[in-house]
Amino acid sequence: MTQAANQAANQAANQERSTFRACFAVAEFRVLFGSQLLLVLGDTVKMLAFSVLVYARTGSPGLAALAYMIGFLPQVAGGMLLLSLADRWRPRALMVAGDLLRVVTCLVLGIGGLGDLPIGVMLALVFAAGVPAPLFSAARAAVLPDVLAGDAYVLGRAVFTTTSAGAQVAGLAVGGGLLVVTGPHGALLITAALSLGSAALTRWGLRDRPARSPRPTRSTRQARSTRHARSTRDTGAVRTTLRVNRALLADRAVRGLLLAGWLPPMLSVGAEAVYVPYLTGEGSAWGAGVVLAAAAAGMGVGEFAVGRFAAPATRERLTLPLALLLGAPLLGFAARPGVAGAAALAFLAAAGLAYNLGLQRRFLDTVPEAARGQAFGLQTSGLMTAQALGAAAVGAVAELVPAHLAIALSGCGVIAVVLALRGDLRGDLRRDLRGDLRGDPRGGRSGRVSPPYGPGGGGEDARPSPAEPAA
Fold first, then answer.
1. pLDDT score of 127
2. SS3 of residue 218 by DSSP
3. Could you give the CA distance from residue 91 to residue 140 in angstroms, rounded to a whole number?
């Protein structure tokens, strides 16, 4: 079969509509779903229990807040420096290693917290354990396209997003109950058991797949020509991660899709960070939980409705209008709504997050397979960083203007960003990057030099595209 015929067959398969039932009919997807559920539940309970433990030991609200968020802070460094390992190591081994690291961390916190283990040491442990977290999540995200193909992959991503949101809410509820029954130490030990269960499920439920971009062997390095000598030496994890991140961000299509996934949620999540001070200032502190719950429900309903009832081509056409929906309802906060009105607006705005479903397949098709794990890790770590910056930015605006106006201004920002990125959201730049990397004129820019996506910058270690049989 010719390359053109292969591409046509792949495109037809991508446009074939799948169902959530078809996703769950795949055994390995059920394994990924179960381990993801245990992972999110465990992490949520761990964050809550550790924060309570630190507050009980120190009486400091600031240290308690730091304990709750400290695991997220180092993930930016991990995303910038270590992500290449997601493609150079076997994905199942990475996922199991991540679960076992959580087991050890929770055991040390739970048992050490009973004794005299200093709070500083405990905070440093959680900080250090957070550095490789993007690596483990990137390996998990990169396996999903191997398990689910075409439209089923997009629905699988929707299931993961919705499940994660629900599991976070459930984790907070379960964590609160565990704190009452067992205290923070017992809750941390139970979290260790959940992580151990996730490790066992992953180890014996997933197939052991090879690394996508294996480390070059000694004989391979010696066999390379002189023109590859510099790239051969430059194969360390940090250097490779930085090099591939630069290559991904330098590509117009990849960069556009990343920005389209980062910037609109950056400002919409920033608005959510101001819901609490807004409603507290209105004398309805209790309503903050209602509004945040409505936002979580809106995200889940939006992802389910678009994933379940919209065909693949329709999802991609809805990307721009749904992204605008992220910001338009927030303009209503200029009218200073009460709890019910704020909850309705938050529900509608969060439903717009379903726009991401129209980007997922395009992103998968655009990035080269040899860098798939790192690309997904960059996507995730960039989104987390953008959301943190958005919360800080909208919070700073709320110091200058009333909170309800800060939320409305963030809605204006979302709309402006979406309009600026409308070409990327609509897919105006769709092309086959893998053909582009090979210098194929049909890929978009003929004669382009291949970026160094492989561990040694290309050459003999580069893998053929799945759509192109190996020679």
1. 87
2. helix
3. 7
d(CA 121, CA 236): 29
- Least confident span in 97-101, 246-250, 265-269, 390-394: 390-394
Weakest mean pLDDT among 6-10, 115-119, 333-337: 6-10
Q: How far apart are CA 310 and CA 468, in angstroms?
A: 31
Q: Highest-confidence range of 9-13, 86-90, 237-241, by mean pLDDT?
A: 86-90
Query: What distance in Å separates the CA atoms of residue 406 and residue 417, rounded to the nearest whole number?
Result: 16
| Residue 439 amino acid letter | G
284 closest CA partner among 344, 334, 342, 333: 342
Enter the pTM of the model: 0.68
- Average pLDDT, stretch 9-33? 78
What are the tens digits of pLDDT across the range 241-251? 888 888 888 88
Using CB atoms within 10 Å of the CB of residue 301, give its burial: 0 to 12 exposed, 13 to 18 middle, 19+ buried: middle
Please name the residue that has the structure tokens 């309802």.
329
Distance, CA of 10 to CA of 358 (rounded, Å):
17
Q: What is the largest CA-CA distance in the chain?
A: 72
In the chain, the amino acid numbered 357 is: L
The span from the CA of 204 to the CA of 279, in Å, is 48
The candidate with the shortest Cα–Cα distance to 316, out of 414, 428, 164, 156, is 428
Contacts of 65 (CB under 8 A, 6+ apart): 51
Sequence-ordered alpha helix ranges (H) in 25-81 = 27-58, 61-69, 75-81
Between CA 34 and CA 37 the distance in angstroms is 5
227 secondary structure, DSSP code: G
pLDDT tens track for 124-134: 998 888 888 88
Place of tokens 């605006």: 397
CA distances from 164 to 159, 224, 262 (A): 8, 45, 18
Selection from 47, 77, 34 nearest residue 245 by Cα = 77
Token pair in block for residue 217:
């062997």
The torsion defined by the Cα of 272, 275, 277 and 279, in degrees rounded to 10, comes to: 180
Output the CA torsion sign for 286, 287, 290, 295. negative
The CA distance from 402 to 253, in Å, is: 39
First to last CA, the chain: 13
Burial class of residue 111, CB neighbours in 10 A (0-12, 13-18, 19+): middle
Q: Percent of the chain, pLDDT > 90?
A: 25
- Angle of CA points 386, 94, 462, to nearest 5°: 85
